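Margin note from the TA: students keep mixing up input and output lines. Inputs are the sequences; the output is the structure of the whole complex. Example:
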Amino acid sequence: MKLKTGTLKNPLHPPNSLRVGLLLILFSFTVKAEKLAEYWGTSEQEATHYRIIDVPIPDEIVLEAGSFDIVPDGRLAIGTRHGEIYLVDGAFEDPPSPTYHRFASGLDEITGLSWRDGSFFISQQTEVSRITDLDGDGRADEFRTLSDVWGFANYHEFSFGSKCDPDGNICLSKSYESLEKFRGWALKVTSEGETIPICSGIRSPCGVGPNAEGVMFYAESQGPWNGSCSLKHLKPGGFMGHPISFNWYDSAPNMGPKPIEPKNRSRMIIERKRVPELVPYAVVFPYRKMGQQLSGFDVDSTKGAFGPFANQMFIGDFSLGVVMRVTTEKINGIWQGACYPFREGFATGLLAVQFTPNGRLITGGTNRGWPVRGPKPFALQRLDWTGAVPFEVKEINALPDGFLLTFTKPVDPSSTGNPESFKIQAYTHIYHQGYGSPEVDLSIPQVQAVELTADSTQVRLRVNGLIKGHVHDFDLSALRSKSGAPLVHAKAYYTLNEIPRSGSGVE
Amino acid sequence: MNRVTGNLFIALGLITVQTTLTSSLAQTAVPPVIGGLQQHSDIEPLLAGGILLSELNCTACHSSNKKWLSFKGAPDLSGTGNRMIEDHLKEFITDPAGTKPGTTMPNLLDHLSEAERNQTAKALAHYLTSNGSGSVSNQNTASDSVERGRVLYHTVGCVACHSPENPIEGSVPLGSLESKYTLSGLASFLRNPLLTRPSGRMPDLNLNHEEAADLAGYLLRNQTRQVSPFILDVQLAEQGRILFNKHGCITCHQNNSGGEANQSIALKNLRENEGCLSNRKGNWPRYALSNEQKSDIIEVLQNINLRLNEEQEIQTTLTKFNCIACHRRNSYGGIAESRNEYFSSQDPNLGEQGRLPPTLTGAGVKLKPAWLRQILVQGAPGRNYLNTRMPQFPASHLERLMVLIDQTDQLPSVDPISFAKINDAKRAGRDLTGTDGLNCLACHTFKGKRTGAMGALDLTVMAQRLQRDWFHQYLLQPQQFSPNTLMPTYWINGQSQKPEILEGRTNDQIEALWLYLSEGYSAGEPRGLRREPMKLVSTNSEAVMLRRSYRGIGKRGIGVGYPGEVNLVYNAEQLCLAMIWRGEFADPAGVWRSQGHGTVRPLSRNPISFPQMPELAFLDRPNADWPTVQGRSEHYQFNGYTLDEQRRPTFRYHYLNVQVDDNFVETLNPESGTHFLRRTLVFKSISPQKTLVFRAAENAEIIAKNSNRFQIGNNLRITISKEFPAQIINLKNSRQLRVPIHSNSEETSMILDYNWEADRK
């Protein structure tokens, strides 16, 4: 199949004006078999605010959830690694009283699932498909291949897809070798089967979707050219950092010429200047401290029904079975932001998370194949907010001369005077071909001044020694709320790709 | 109640306080029952007295700075109306010990006249019931639910403290639950008891919603009375709120009444025969204390400045929370003889150890503090074979116990052992674990998988639970640490039974095991871990499908198992029939286990394979060279498939502008009684310029049996629709069976039957 004007066309589905979006990633799912990190040790406190509720699974079903969606009648749809799609009633009830209906089976591993226009648009390993129940008997009977332009060179090449978005489906692909077409690439697939390469340089994604502003991101894994796991912005035309995918620029004329190769054993902040297409990690998740294999994520669009973190992203981790929070902001044209611990203690490795209409977070996955902290081979669990607001750093924003920290509850003004309350370290990772990286170039930025807003919920830190491109690692364990409580999670990690220009920051 | 009568009422109450009468309460009522004290009379009187002061909430009014005497608190009464019945509350408040013999709730109204007492209790009960949404419901429970509840009650641990159906004396009383609780109220209490009873004396048994409902249904199985709907009397409720604070209820019971705790004489200044400890009525709580209980309390008052040693503190806490109903620590506590039969196992092969909760002797040197904490507070995976559940307690009450256990228990430390190559040591540990080593798998599960007859504690959580020093010493002498254990020592007199591993060095072997198990869930699987075979077959007369990698076909294989034991794999990348076989469909373990990087294995020893390349080509003439394509050809595009009622697929693809529908159906051969595969190919929009050729088979041996029947190799016979004359084409090393498709119509159908040669015999 040849590319014509930068697109790939499936003859069965001539283009028309309707464009349905679904983002798909193809990649190799590789977790190094190394010892798993310890828990944060915060589950006791977490449980008073967010309770993990088991959603029972009948004995005869192997439910290795790889993707979720909510269908218009309110049922939870689950795509599994076994290649089945289940529709579940009652999963959001209290207590959960689910009944499972198998809508489709026999598919490859489903890592993206989306309901639109009366069909499921799924990403399975071999293709993006549109699946429909034509005769209305509750079981799918039409399976249309929308795109299968990518190849397979070795076994650990997976594909991960987003949900449909208003504009287009995107598909990412990856392998170490990139011996087959579009391995290591992000592709956009439309509902008519049009397939458009949009990014190169992907290593090993797992999880792809938009932030609250509708901008596409994907979760990248630690490994070659990735010192740690991170969330990356899928900037159309961008290069995500792993040069082995350069093989396929000839097949993607819309992407322009092949970028120049990044230098080995360098730093992202240096190579960004040399390689204009290189998109820096938006949010770095320091390895082991914040997961070891990021996975699916979803935006809290429940308008407060899940607590005080509306519009933030919640991302799972496969290895450690934890859920973390992410905030993003665009500074000087570059996406960056922070990640925060949120909830640990899930029963299995998480692959997908999904907010429900009534403000709960459904999680699912498996511990199959790679080292995973959770003991269950698979599980479906729900995270319910108890209604008690936890004392947390709600968000960190960059300022021209420091950071703005917003908290979920008023801070004790006397504890903000304690220099121990705002400890910051800055470090980065080696940008190289080798597998992962230690934290390097460590420095200790100095907090010069602390200003508390009148309502005591925001703290403005003036910091001497901000380092562009580095992770700024916050330790706030000495900070106290007005009622004297410590933070549920005292850690937060801000990736400072860009420092806002004076006058442009959040005031 | 208006202000005037309210004041009058209070005034009357004050007058009554002056008329002190000797009560008969102490002589007739059952003394308060403290679970931990009932079952174990061997505790020192001083400790028993202290436990009473704490459990009866004495120190709520009589303050003391002694931590071990701190009061436990009473149930949180906010939301009472969601679970309790007003009439019961009234009766209970009027006469607690009479309504629930053995209760720890004192009588606070004993000094009032009968009329005042009744009116006060009525107002209090109404006020308390007004707290809550009021949406109580009561429905009869199905008998199977009652039966499940009965089993739960007698197995999960309720009867460690409470009485089984055959009554046991000294049990923590339940009172008349039927008159106290609504069904939904009791179920929600049992689901999360710590919410309303934050003292943790009724711990959280991890009941799920259904279990809590079953248990509540069982406990209320004799409930006949329907709960009458609560009708709010605002004045009465307000009167109750005022009385709630006046009578000091708020001192022990949290709620939202807005009152303040009563404070009386400090504990150290109490006199032995005054107030609550006297037999007189007065404006104080009246407890139905036994003489022994009184004397135990006086023992504390006389030794008020005494400091407990660490083991005494531990004993006190274990007694308050009645840990000793299930556990023994050194010579203290343990399961009472009368309750022993209620401790049962899911795995009788594990013997007493599989039935009885573990000893707490040396728990501080055995368990890692974080694991101990998890067990107590959050629950931890572990002894799944015990039917009795380890309940969860509120962390705040057990912080000190966890520290004490950690500090008090002692064990000699084991010197560090270093290895030249740590990975070699871990490998040795893995070898020791497997069937060729010490075969730990014979008894222990590994990542929840059971290999032998027993399901003893999972090996992958050992290092998370245990301390290294204990692990080393336990493996040498398991019986020393755990008298009930079935665990043998593999180092008899310190001699290894496996001299070939690490040269038989005992300490090195144990350290190697420790290092290997320290990998936890990441640890590689030991040799001999048994796996159940997997099989995917057609059921309910429907075809079964699996799109996955098949050997020799690649990642875009679509396997289909038909009813009638015929099967195929379609190659959706090369657009061809890839393989067929008879018998059962497939073993998916290669793709449904581990990373899934294997292949689906057909359940047949001799599947028939076809060349993995497109079956359709436009040729200049039928015997022209078949086009060879490296990898994928851009001329072919798979479009998916539709399923019929029996889930049988019709595959669809495009070859240039030709659309192909490719359908397979299992078809019965009436002569042999077995099935063959009937394939229907439909071609649309054939371009007339060139000859479209279908390649039906390729084999070294293809023989024409008649004009449309062909023998392919030894096993296969293909029959093609008569209107499509096929040709055998000789190639260098093999032959091909080709069918030219000539058509002038928009749509052309061709049928091929695939018969197994054995069918003819």
